[in-house]
Backbone:
């Protein structure tokens, strides 16, 4: 995921880009990079109160964290599970014959600044309490398991390799992946199951932009035991994988042409309170026309005097809530529609079922299947027609 954050200010960032160098302690930065001598890692945190120092009751602790500035939490990567995963990434790069070790800093989201070879990872991954708050506030964590985090790290490393050796400026890169200057948009219309692109991150992500196409292809190439030569041999994207294999052989052992020296990792976004951070991420309000109420009645049932008092039923809102994450995760994965739109639609459907006092009776599997198909159809309308409802 490329992030165009070039508008941020810059302070001295005396960080080298390869194994065998170390970081200077610039005030106010979250950073992570190889220590002199190779192998071990080192991190520097922002000054302030550590998240671990909040020893209050869970609700009071949560409220205090939400009111606090992210930059004051004293977050660092050192000693966390994230640090171990970064080391695994570095080990994979060494196995692949790649010299560079991309520095990693804490940001408000996953991404690489535009054409800057450095990786930003979400700040909450540095603390288990913040992961729990992210899970609560965002209906799930974008990458939580070790393998999910490694998938994102490999993808971002693809951007880093691209920027470090200026591959995006070459004609060969343009011929295979497309123009780097193509506008970067959050909402894109993928061609599901296209063999012209690899599959790595959810949602046909390689189809978002040529830069992401390269990053996804690199990630597949880097993944241990991906068996990409066999898995993709008959696919249209196979020449892209061969290209990555070739440029690694050409540039992997050489010094990068571009380093992140001078890039300020003390992002403005982390100077906000945690509550303000989540307020800015609030999902959009989605509404669908009342005439779709009939479809919801087909899936669930309205209260009826004829319903036996002893029959087993539950509010449709509770049924949707219990399956909310599984439904949204699957739809985002298979359609490529952005997660905020899917969550907002599900929330609206849940609220509408509550307003209609619909109830769930009987077969859970049948109701779940119908609900998933209903939501998926609306999401495909949004992807290919521009709105959930084709008027």
Residues:
């Amino acid at each position: 995921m490329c992030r165009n954050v070039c508008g941020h200010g810059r302070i001295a960032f005396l960080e080298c880009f390869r194994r065998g160098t170390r970081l200077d302690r610039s005030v106010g930065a979250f950073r992570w990079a190889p220590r002199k001598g190779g192998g071990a890692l080192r991190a520097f945190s922002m000054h302030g109160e550590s998240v671990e120092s909040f020893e209050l009751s869970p609700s009071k602790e949560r409220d205090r964290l939400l009111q606090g500035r992210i930059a004051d939490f004293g977050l660092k990567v050192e000693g966390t599970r994230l640090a171990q995963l970064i080391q695994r990434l570095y080990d994979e790069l060494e196995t692949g014959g790649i010299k560079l070790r991309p520095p990693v800093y804490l940001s408000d989201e996953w991404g690489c600044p535009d054409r800057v070879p450095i990786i930003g990872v979400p700040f909450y991954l540095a603390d288990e309490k913040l992961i729990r708050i992210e899970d609560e506030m965002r209906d799930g964590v974008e990458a939580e398991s070790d393998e999910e985090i490694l998938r994102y790290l490999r993808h971002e490393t693809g951007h880093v390799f691209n920027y470090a050796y200026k591959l995006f400026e070459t004609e060969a890169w343009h011929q295979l992946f497309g123009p780097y200057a193509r506008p970067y948009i959050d909402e894109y219309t993928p061609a599901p199951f296209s063999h012209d692109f690899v599959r790595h991150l959810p949602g046909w992500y390689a189809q978002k932009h040529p830069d992401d196409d390269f990053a996804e292809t690199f990630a597949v190439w880097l993944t241990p035991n991906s068996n990409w030569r066999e898995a993709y041999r008959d696919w249209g994207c196979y020449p892209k994988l061969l290209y990555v294999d070739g440029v690694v052989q050409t540039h992997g052992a050489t010094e990068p042409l571009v380093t992140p020296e001078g890039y300020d990792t003390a992002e403005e976004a982390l100077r906000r309170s945690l509550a303000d951070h989540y307020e800015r991420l609030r999902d959009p309000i989605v509404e669908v026309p009342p005439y779709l109420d009939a479809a919801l009645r087909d899936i669930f049932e309205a209260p009826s005097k004829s319903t036996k008092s002893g029959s087993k039923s539950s509010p449709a809102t509770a049924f949707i809530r219990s399956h909310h994450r599984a439904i949204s995760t699957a739809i985002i994965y298979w359609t490529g529609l952005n997660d905020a739109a899917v969550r907002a639609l599900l929330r609206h459907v849940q609220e509408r079922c509550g307003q209609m006092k619909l109830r769930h009776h009987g077969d859970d599997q049948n109701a779940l299947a119908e609900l998933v198909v209903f939501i998926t159809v609306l999401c495909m309308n949004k992807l290919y027609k521009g709105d959930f409802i084709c008027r």
